[in-house]
Amino acid sequence: MNKDFFKSSNPSRFHSLRDTRPEPTTWQVLFKEITNSTHTAATRHYRAHLATLSDIEATGDAQQLEQWKLTKSNMKNAQPAFIPSVLLEGGRTYAHVKGFTGFIMVDIDGIPPERFAAILTLVKEDIHSFLVYITISGCGIRVISHVEGGVTKANYRMVWEWVNDHYARLCEVEIDGQCKNATRMSVLCHDPEALLRPEASSFHTSGMKPREKPKRGTAVTVTAERAYKIIRAQLEEEGIAYAPGSYNDYVSRCFYHTNRYGVPQADAEVWALRTFPDYPREQLLPIVKSCYSLTMEFNTVSLPRSVRKKEKENDSSHKKATVEEMEEFINGYMKFRMNMLTHQIETQLIADAYTDRPEASACHWQRLTDHIENSLWCAMQHHGMAVNLNELHTLLGSDFVKEYHPLKEYLDGLPPWDGETDYIGRLATMVHVKESPHSPLQQDKSRERNDLSETPVRFADILKRWMVSMIAAALDETVVKQVILTLIGRQGSYKTSFMQHILPPVLSEYYTTKSNSSRMTKDDLFTMTENLVINLEEIDTMPPSELNQLKAMVTQRYVDERRAYGRNKVHLPHVASFVATGNNLQFLTDDTGNRRWLPFEVEDIDSPWEADIPYEGIYSQTYALVTRNFAASLFRNIKYFTLRKLYLCRKWMQKRLQKTTTTGITLPNFDFLA
Fold this sequence. Notes:
With about 675 residues, the protein is of the alpha/beta class. It contains 23 helices and 23 strands.
């Protein structure tokens, strides 16, 4: 191995299996950590726990067994680990991979106890073994080897299979097929006899070829190791043992059966020398040759079906995947997050080492669907993981998927407001309303009369208060916005377009419309829990019955309903703020519920499609105003609309009621305006 490359391809270390922040380290430091006393206590404790777990499995106590399995998982997750195969920066998924180191990890598991020491010696003596240590369970062997010639995303799987097949042939045991993930972590534990060989020989990609898949209907070659499991049981039943006086008979019968089971002669000879090291070589090999001279007997008997089934269950490639293995695979395949506005899981495909997916880096976030979840399950199966679809669904419904609030993330990423520029006021100037305060004469007359009933209501003031309360209601579920910003005017005056442009483009998907459908449905209720702005279009065409339902919906704090195809009711907060548009000034007929409306008659609106709206400034200003109110009152008793402003709005609105009779209306409690 090139020593310069050895120094430049150091692994990344993590404080635990769940840690996502890589720290650079060196192979020498890792080797020292494995061989010194750093992890002695943790390794001893974990292995003792495994022994107790085996005893509990024998008792059949399911509840206690589940508790001990959880403890075992937590113990292992707490151990530090390293990733040998890739160079990482900023995280541990494929999105953070900056290159491949050329180091390949091999996990030799499922070793018969009587062969463990012999296999460990074989692995350590192999010239390709760079790092070798016993795993934390005490039952497996972890091997790190190096490959020259350039390891890339395109050829990583082929390289991994080539190196792992080498050790499978060397040890004649099955190799854990779940280690092919390039971002797979290797747990650090204590092994004072571990091996580090800087001068180890490297494999080279020039001689590697993709693993050939057996054609359908082609018999898979039986290994001597597999056949011997059956042969040994058969000989025990016949009372024949490998003991003084019966060595020759035992060995002869073994190779008679390996020939019938179809084990190649060359493989049988290699296996014979390893399995019977005390039998003289010059006597052993002629026995093998003699048994295999019966060519008509070769491959005439199949392994018993029950044995094949049991082997399949015990095979590492069909072994049920643990939660940790599922999490590790998913972290290298897809990103997941729980959108706290829509209450839906979202996913994004990321690049991986198994398939060439150049489009992955450009993939956008999308809602998790059955199709995506099923595709993930299929990918796990293709990569040797035995995963139950229900268990995968349970994992994705747990705290493994981190929470994400799109509005909060957007606001936190904005530059701070300068404290002076009125960006919301600039947005308001796009809307030209009747009885506008922009007329100095009208303002002066109002001051002279000091008549509240004639003082104009400034749209800019109302819009600012509405914007602040919209953000407050979306960020705190104890705040419900119960007033509806309403624009009334002729068709084609950009009323709906203006409402569509209240939210910045990055949040535009959280704007929706509600047109007159003559009734409010359960879907409308859920709409309140997953959108920021709901526009009630054609408000003047809504019948009184729907308006009454709307009043109840606007004030509703939570939605307690069962979703379509859902198993249980959900308890979701009302986060949406309402706006409305219409053409008819006389859209209200009941003055007992009119306090919910903040109507303005529009003369014209500047085209939002052509305007350069300063969203960053608008929302940094809004967030700053909201934050101040957070600190002052923790969202309680926040009066974004003062008594004066509400009184003026109501006086202005009364002129547009269809009813002309004067009615004494009691001023409401203003907590709803928060």
